[in-house]
């Protein structure tokens, strides 16, 4: 037993997974009324900006560039942090990353966000336009719009919803975030969709 090789552990720190954890720690701060979780979320945000950001968001340290999922979940975490702290730094960073995502990932012809910035080899030579991440990005847009109204962003979100409105049924339960985004749009974006 002493001669067994230790299992390999990946030490890659992914931006999208950390974005989800930031949101989870902000939620834990609310639920448990414990400032530790907010401090941990803040440290995670600082770490991502120090290690996984070089002019654009990276998927992980030393990667070429981030994926749509990195932008979606990290922006969401920044908005959650802003709502928990009322610190404009976080909403400012979220807005800047949203601008980058629109510039680098938004396909004007398909009127949707594509999954990555560059085409790859083989099957990766085609872009994907994931419904879940597009729906979550629309929810991020609505949340940012509720903080600082931006008609251009609101129109972009409306267009994405219209684009996917003809095909969402084929996604089955994976269309749940699309349904939440449509409901949020119809309610007027002010209400937190996950509480509603």
Q: Would you mind describing this structure in some detail?
A:
This protein has 196 residues and is mostly helical. The protein has helices at residues 15-32, 35-51, 68-85, 88-105, 131-147, 151-164, 176-187, and strands at 53-54, 56-57, 106-107, 112-113. Strands 1-2 form a two-stranded antiparallel ribbon. The longest helix is centred in the first third of the chain and has 18 residues, at 15-32. It is globular and about 60 Å long. The mean pLDDT is 91.
Brief write-up:
This protein is mainly α.
The protein's oligomeric status is single chain
Coarse shape: globular
* Mean of pLDDT: 91
Number of strands: 4
Strand order of the largest sheet: 1-2
Helix content: 55-70%
| Uncertain regions spanning at least 5 consecutive residues | none
For the termini, the CA-CA separation is: 54 Å
Estimated radius of gyration:
18 Å
Strand content: under 5%
| Helix and strand run | HHEEHHEEHHH
**Class based on secondary structure composition and strand pairing:** mainly alpha
Could you describe the largest sheet, including whether it forms a barrel?
2 strands, antiparallel
The tally of helices reads 7
